Every structure is written in C-alpha cells, then in structure tokens.
Automatic annotation (TrEMBL):
Subunit structure: NDH-1 is composed of 14 different subunits. Subunits NuoA, H, J, K, L, M, N constitute the membrane sector of the complex.
Top-level division of the source organism's lineage: Bacteria
EC number: 7.1.1.-
Gene: nuoH
A Pfam family hit: NADHdh
UniProt KW Transport keyword: no
Bilayer-crossing regions: 18-42, 88-111, 131-154, 175-194, 206-224, 253-279, 299-319, 331-351, 363-381
Organism of this sequence: Streptomyces galilaeus
Stored NCBIfam families: PRK06076.1-2 (NF004741), PRK06076.1-4 (NF004743)
HAMAP family noted in UniProt: NDH1_NuoH (MF_01350)
Protein role: NDH-1 shuttles electrons from NADH, via FMN and iron-sulfur (Fe-S) centers, to quinones in the respiratory chain. The immediate electron acceptor for the enzyme in this species is believed to be ubiquinone. Couples the redox reaction to proton translocation (for every two electrons transferred, four hydrogen ions are translocated across the cytoplasmic membrane), and thus conserves the redox energy in a proton gradient. This subunit may bind ubiquinone.
Keywords: Cell membrane, Membrane, NAD, Oxidoreductase, Quinone, Translocase, Transmembrane, Transmembrane helix, Ubiquinone
Molecular function GO labels: NADH dehydrogenase (quinone) (non-electrogenic) activity
Protein name: NADH-quinone oxidoreductase subunit H
Top-level EC class as recorded in UniProt: translocase
C-alpha cells in the first residue's frame, strides 16, 4: 500500500435525482435529531443510575419523552435580549454554532458504497455524498462551529460569557492539532481521505487494533472539542455562572444545547468510521453470517457503535470531576501534541519501510532501536539536568504579600504565606487580665522578669 493517496472510485456518488438527495438529507437530519433526543434521556437515566437516583419517569413511558418536554419548555420561555448586547451577532451566534454540527454527517457512510439500496424504486448508496478530501471537510466544518461560541460570548456584553468564549477558543486550538495528527495516521495507513474508502480498507482489521494510540488521542480530543466533562471549562458554572451561554434563554439557549449533543453524535460517527470499522459488523457476527454487511444491516452496526461511544461520553460525565484550566491546557500542549506528532512519525516510518518491502522483523528491529535510543537520550538528559540542579545553591524563597494587590490572593509555587500569630487561649487571657504570669507565645518576657523591670 502506498503512502500516496489512492485513486478512489467515487463514481457512484452524484448520480441521484434531486428529490432523492432531499430525502437522504432529511434522513441525516432526522437521524441526528432522534439520536439527540434519545441521548439526552439516556444520559439523565444513566447518570441517575450511577448516583442511585430514579431519573426522568414522568413524561412518556419510562420517561422517554423527557427531552421532548424540555425542548417544548425552552421554546415557550420568554426570549430575552440583554441591553448591552450586539443584537445582530447575539441572535446569529446560536445559528452559527448549530448549523456546522449538522453538516459533517453528509460524508459519513451508513453502509457500503457498492451495496446500493432501493428507495422508492431508485437505487442509491447509504451515504449522502463522499469527497476525495472528506476528512478535511469534516475538520473544516468542526472548526467553524467554534465561531458561534466565541461570538456568543463577545456579543453578550458581559464578562463571564466573554471568558467562556475565549476559553473555548483556546481549548479548540489546543486539541485540534492533536486531532489532526490522529487523522493523519489514518490517512497514511488507508492511503485515502475518503470516508467510504477508509471503511473499505478496514475489511481485514479495524484501525483501533493497528493504530491504538491514534484512537486514544482522538477519544481524548473529541471530548475536549465538544466541551464535555471533564473538559467543560467554557461553561464552568463554578466560576463562570454558565459560560458563553449565560445571557441566553429560550430557543437560542436550546440551539447551543442542541449543537453540543449533535457534535457528540458527529464525533462519535467519525470515530466509528475511522477506527471501529464504520458500518461493518463486529468480528464474531461477520464470521458466521455472510449477509451481515448487506442490505440494511450495516446501518444497525453503525448505530450500535455510535451509541456505545455516546455511552462513553455519559460515563465520563458521571465519573470524573472537572479539571482545572491549567491542567486542561497542559494536557493539550505538553502531552497530546508531542505524543501525536511522535506517533505520526512512527507510523510514517513503518509505512515507508513496508513500501520498501522490508520484513516485519526488520521493521520491528529498526523501530525498536529508534525508540530505545530516544529513551536513552532522555534518561541521560534528565540525569545531567538533575545534577545541575543539585549543584546550584537553593534560592531564597521570594517574599509574598497576599494583600499586595488590594485583595487576598493564594501563593504561587515556591511562595509561602507569612506565619499567622497564635491566638491566646481563654486561660491565658484570664491570667493576663488578673495580673498573673504572662505567656511567652508572643516572645515577651515572663511575669517575673516584667516585675523586675
């Protein structure tokens, strides 16, 4: 397999009549909306189960219509526009955040491209469309949605929404780089950026087995991209009230909530397509059932995989606490980006050696030798660095005044708070008032020396 992009056969796309394109587009929209409605109820049910609560149980059978009731309630609420807001941008921001979330599903395959199905007597593929650069299209669309959050924070005319929007922008930049590197590893192995071709290349083995580091990197980055716990810093209610959507209400607030859950479905669909075999049936089923990947069955396997990833989102929210903002940025810049770039270079090296017809043993020898050399150099560098620190004299800790800025602030690393004088006990205060011997807690002389003076 070459490192260059393979010549994809996308001739089966673009031949549908206009009414069939509309039907497939409506199906993609309905699939996202129904999945979001189910995911909201499922999240509240699962988190309630984890916390030993009942969860929604009033609207519909087993509370399954709770998300629909929440949507109706939000639309019937009073729609407020704050006085200091930039009204045009304030109204358009939720739309800008919601529309790109729906666009990425257009290039996700729900079934094999060669297995056409019949819709109203017309043969068509189980995918709206495909592009030679479909994955770049997904990255571009995902980057547009961040503008809605940033503009919502800025146009509100309030401090806390602005901070939430800026946090989201910085978080997106930090995690988008590692996500792109994880995608690049898949491009190198599949030789294509087309989503249908990437799924076809996973016929023998899914990429979660061939590229496990890329899968882990993408899982972490997709949680950061969707602003979900434990990376939900843009809407941290502990210090930002509600984040970028603090000043929003009614249907505009519902659009932000809808965009978050649609993004969850979209990134789960992308992870399924790139690493979990897409619409392919899992290994035990595909071995003893030849028709598992034909007809409408591929859509079932695709939906099951997406729901499992959505359950992973819910599991994280009910398990992990929110991280600090400095921990969030440190993970993105100091861990994910170096690991993703190093892994990308390793994958490129292996693919190049495979294209040169090297044996697997030789490839393992070369790659293992390179990794050991890097570990040895890192160990030597750390040893000399620690020796230099030991030779340096310990610097005196800088003086710290917690009230220097006019209000109390916590000390930075290396700074210490001044000692707090010990408050005299009740017995000591009674002795002082009665003229008895004083204590030496404050460094003063005892009663006898004081009387001699």
């Amino acid at each position: 397999m070459s490192l260059y992009l393979a010549a994809e056969d996308l001739s089966m796309f673009g031949r549908d009549p206009w009414w069939l394109v509309v039907v497939k587009a409506v199906f993609c929209f309905a699939f996202l909306m129904l999945t979001v409605l189910f995911s909201i109820v499922w999240e509240r049910k699962v988190v309630a189960w984890m916390q030993l609560r009942v969860g929604p149980n009033r609207h519909g059978p087993w509370g399954m219509l709770q998300s629909l009731a929440d949507g109706v309630k939000l639309m019937l609420k009073e729609d407020l526009i704050v006085k200091r807001a930039d009204k045009v941008v304030y109204v358009l921001a939720p739309v800008v955040a919601a529309i790109p979330a729906f666009m990425a599903i257009a290039v996700i395959p729900f079934g094999p491209a060669g297995n056409e199905i019949s819709i109203f007597g017309q043969r068509t593929t189980m995918q709206l469309t495909d592009l030679p650069i479909a994955m770049l299209y997904i990255l571009a669309v995902a980057s547009i949605g961040i503008y809605g959050i940033v503009l919502a924070g800025w146009s509100s005319g309030s401090t806390y929404p602005l901070l939430g929007g800026l946090r989201s922008c910085a978080q997106m930049i930090s995690y988008e780089i590692a996500m792109g590197a994880a995608f690049a590893s898949v491009f190198l192995y599949s030789g294509s950026m087309s989503t249908s071709t990437i799924v076809e290349q996973q016929q023998d083995r899914w990429y979660i087995l061939l590229l496990p580091v890329s899968f882990i990197l993408y899982i972490v980055t997709m949680v950061g991209e969707t602003n979900r716990a434990p990376f939900d810093m843009p809407e941290s209610e502990g210090d930002l009230v509600g984040g970028f959507n603090t000043e929003y209400s009614s249907i505009k607030f519902a659009l932000f909530m809808l965009a978050e859950y649609v993004n969850m479905v979209t990134v789960s669909a992308v992870a399924t397509t790139l690493f979990l075999g897409g619409w392919r049936a899992p290994w035990p089923v595909s071995t003893f059932w030849e028709g598992a990947n034909h007809g409408w069955w591929p859509m079932l396997w695709f939906v099951v995989k997406v729901q499992l990833l959505l359950f992973f989102f819910i599991w994280l929210r009910g398990t992990l606490p929110r991280v600090r903002y400095d921990q969030l940025m440190k993970l993105g810049w100091k861990v994910l980006i170096p690991v993703s770039v190093t892994w990308l270079m390793l994958v490129a090296t292996v693919r190049t050696l495979r294209n040169e017809n090297y044996d697997f043993a030789d490839i393992a020898l070369y790659v293992g030798g390179g990794v050991l050399a890097l570990l040895l150099l890192s160990f030597v560098a750390d040893m000399f660095r620690d020796r230099g620190k030991d030779e340096q004299a310990p610097a005196e800790p800088a003086g710290f005044d917690p009230m220097a800025g006019g209000f109390p602030v916590p000390p930075l690393p290396g700074q210490e708070l001044p000692p707090v004088p010990r408050r005299a006990s009740r017995r000591e205060r009674e002795l002082i008032v009665s003229g008895g011997p004083d204590t030496q807690s404050d460094g003063s002389l005892d009663g006898k020396e004081a009387s001699d003076g």
